[in-house]
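Human:
Care to share another protein and its fold?

Assistant:
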Amino acid sequence: MGLSDYFRESAYALHRSALRKQRLPGCCQEKLSPTGRGVRFLTRGGCDTVLPLWKCRVCTRTYAMMEERYLPIDNPLRFEIVER
């Protein structure tokens, strides 16, 4: 079993950063554009899903979006990034 498989099946995977309700900074509310990539994310129910990545054209911040919630991607090394 590899390290990625271990964390996917262990309790640590359930304590990832939570999605926040959508209150993005001013420039990001209107200037987000899709990147064509996504991050693997474990939902509260334990389902493995891929959240699409969006990037602000003004401040270059990156967010993973799910419905009306977002997850700031400050350090991309914390996530498994995949092509969509």
